[in-house]
C-alpha cells in the first residue's frame, strides 16, 4: 500500500493545533499579488510561511523545494496557471513533469508526498483557489511537523 | 437631365469619400521603419481600434506597470509616430509573443511581429532587455540543456569563450521565463532581474 497521510491512524486527533510553515512559490501571470496569496493560508501560519513570486513556474527548481524542506518548512506549494494558459506556452508543463518525478523521490526517501503539491489555478476563479489551497493545508496538517533527520542522509556504518 | 445631375452628385460624393479614407490615417516614418525591420508585412493601418487584442492580453491585465499599456495603444502610437513612450515602456520586454491577440484580431494584424520588430529597433537604439538571461562563460559547459528547453528558441551554442563553445542568448528573442536557468546543471545561465541566490535568500531562515 502507498504511504499516505490519510492512511495513518490517530493522526487526526494530534494535529488540531498545529500551524504549518509553508513555502509558496507562485507564478506572476496568474496571481500577480503575493499579499493575496498570503491571505489564502490559515491565520496561524501566515507569519511563519514564505511567499516567493517567480516569473513562471518553470523557473521553480527541485533544489528550491529541497532547500525549503531543509530550512524546516512543513510544506511546499506551487501555484501555476492552467494547462494551455501559460504565458510562455509550455512553462507549466515542464514544471509538472519535474514535480511529478520529484514527488515520487520524496515518497522513496520517506517523506509524505502530500507535503509538496502543484496546483493549477485560473485567476478568475477565487473559490476554486481557496478550496484547493485549503485541501493542501489540511493534508500538511495531517502529516504533522516536518523533522529534518541527518540520519536519512548519512546512515551510520556498522563495523 | 435631373438623373444625370444626381449621378454627378453621387460620383462627387463617392470620390470625396474615397479621398477621406485615404487621408484618414497618415502612417508615420516610424511605422515604415517597423515594416522594414520585420520579416513579414505589417499592415498597421488595418487596425481600427476595436481593442479585442487588449481584452485578451495577459500583460495588460496582470503586469502592474506604472504607466498602463495595452497592445491597442501600442499599435496606435506606432501609427502616429510616438516612439518614445513605446520604446521606454517595459511592455515590449514583458510580452511573450503568445499570439493570443492575433487570434482575437478580426483584421489579421500581426501584433506579435510588431512587438518583435519593436524590440529589434529598441536594441538598435541602445536599450537593454531587463529580463534577458545572461551566461557566465567561465562555468558554461555547452551541454545544450537550455537550448532544448527554451520556448522561444533564443539560445544557441556558438564558438567562443574559454572552453571553445558557449551558449549565447539572443536578447531580442529572450522573454525572461527562466526555464533555462532551472535546467542548467552549473547555474551558469541566470536572469538579471531574479538571481538564483536572491531566490534562495528569500526563504532562508536566519537563525
CATH topology of the largest domain in chain B: Fumarate Reductase Iron-sulfur Protein, Chain B, domain 2
- In the CATH classification, which architecture of the largest domain in chain B applies? Orthogonal Bundle
The share of residues in extended strands of chain A comes to 15-25%
Radius of gyration of chain A: 16 Å
Largest interface: pair, residues per side: A-B, 28 and 24 residues
- For the record, the CATH class of chain A is Alpha Beta
How would you describe this structure to a colleague?
The complex is a heterodimer of chains A (about 160) and B (about 210). Chain A has about 160 residues and is of the alpha/beta class. Chain A has one domain: Rossmann fold, CATH 3.40.50. Chain A is built from 5 helices and 4 strands, in the order αβαβαβαβα. Chain A has helices at about 10-15, 35-40, 60-70, 90-110, 125-145; strands at about 20-25, 50-55, 75-80, 115-120. Chain A has a 4-stranded parallel beta sheet, with helices on both faces. In chain A, strand 1, helix 2 (about 35-40) and strand 2 form a beta-alpha-beta unit. The radius of gyration of chain A is 16 Å and the shape is globular. The termini of chain A are far apart. With about 210 residues, chain B is mainly alpha-helical. Chain B folds into 2 domains: about 1-125, Orthogonal Bundle (Fumarate Reductase Iron-sulfur Protein, Chain B, domain 2); about 135-200, Alpha-Beta Plaits. Chain B has helices at about 1-25, 30-35, 50-55, 60, 70-80, 85-90, 90-95, 100-105, 110-125, 145-150, 180-185, 195-200; strands at about 135, 155-160, 165-170, 190. In chain B, strands 1-4 form a two-stranded antiparallel ribbon. In chain B, a hairpin with a 5-residue loop joins strand 2 and strand 3. The longest helix of chain B is centred in the N-terminal third of the chain and has 23 residues, at about 1-25. The relative contact order of chain B is 0.11. The interface of A and B includes residues 29, 64, 87 and 123 of A.
Amino acid at each position: 500500500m502507498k504511504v499516505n497521510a490519510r492512511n495513518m491512524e490517530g493522526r487526526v486527533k494530534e494535529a488540531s493545533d498545529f500551524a504549518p510553515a509553508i513555502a509558496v512559490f507562485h507564478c506572476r501571470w496568474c496571481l500577480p499579488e503575493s499579499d493575496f496569496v498570503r491571505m489564502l493560508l490559515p491565520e496561524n501560519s501566515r507569519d511563519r510561511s514564505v511567499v516567493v513570486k517567480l516569473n513562471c513556474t518553470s523557473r521553480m527548481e527541485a533544489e528550491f523545494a529541497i532547500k525549503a524542506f531543509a530550512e524546516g518548512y512543513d510544506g511546499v506549494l506551487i501555484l501555476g496557471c492552467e494547462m494551455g494558459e501559460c504565458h510562455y506556452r509550455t512553462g507549466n508543463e515542464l514544471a509538472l513533469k519535474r514535480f511529478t518525478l520529484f514527488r515520487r523521490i520524496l515518497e522513496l526517501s520517506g517523506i509524505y508526498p502530500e507535503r509538496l503539491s502543484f496546483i493549477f489555478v485560473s485567476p478568475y476563479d477565487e473559490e476554486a483557489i481557496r478550496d484547493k489551497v485549503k485541501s493542501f493545508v489540511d493534508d500538511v496538517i495531517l502529516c504533522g511537523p516536518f523533522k529534518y533527520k541527518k540520519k536519512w542522509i548519512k546512515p551510520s556504518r556498522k563495523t | 437631365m435631373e438623373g444625370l445631375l444626381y449621378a454627378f452628385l453621387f460620383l462627387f460624393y463617392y470620390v470625396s469619400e474615397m479621398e477621406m479614407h485615404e487621408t484618414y490615417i497618415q502612417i508615420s516614418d516610424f511605422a515604415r521603419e517597423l515594416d522594414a525591420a520585420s520579416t513579414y508585412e505589417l499592415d498597421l493601418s488595418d487596425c481600427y481600434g476595436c481593442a479585442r487584442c487588449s481584452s485578451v492580453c495577459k500583460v495588460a491585465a496582470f503586469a502592474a506597470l506604472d504607466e498602463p499599456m495595452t497592445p491597442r495603444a501600442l499599435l496606435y502610437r506606432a501609427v502616429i509616430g510616438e516612439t518614445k513612450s513605446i520604446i521606454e515602456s517595459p511592455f515590449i520586454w514583458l510580452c511573450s509573443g503568445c499570439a493570443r491577440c492575433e487570434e482575437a484580431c478580426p483584421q489579421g494584424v500581426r501584433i506579435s511581429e510588431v512587438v518583435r520588430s519593436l524590440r529589434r529597433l529598441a536594441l538598435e537604439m541602445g536599450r537593454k532587455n531587463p529580463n534577458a538571461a545572461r551566461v557566465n562563460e567561465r562555468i558554461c559547459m555547452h551541454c545544450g540543456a537550455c537550448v532544448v528547453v527554451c520556448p522561444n528558441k533564443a539560445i544557441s551554442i556558438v564558438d567562443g569563450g574559454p572552453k571553445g563553445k558557449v551558449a549565447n542568448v539572443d536578447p531580442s528573442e529572450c522573454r525572461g521565463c527562466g526555464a533555462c536557468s532551472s535546467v542548467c546543471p552549473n547555474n551558469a545561465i541566470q536572469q538579471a532581474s531574479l538571481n538564483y541566490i536572491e531566490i534562495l535568500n528569500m526563504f532562508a531562515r536566519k537563525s
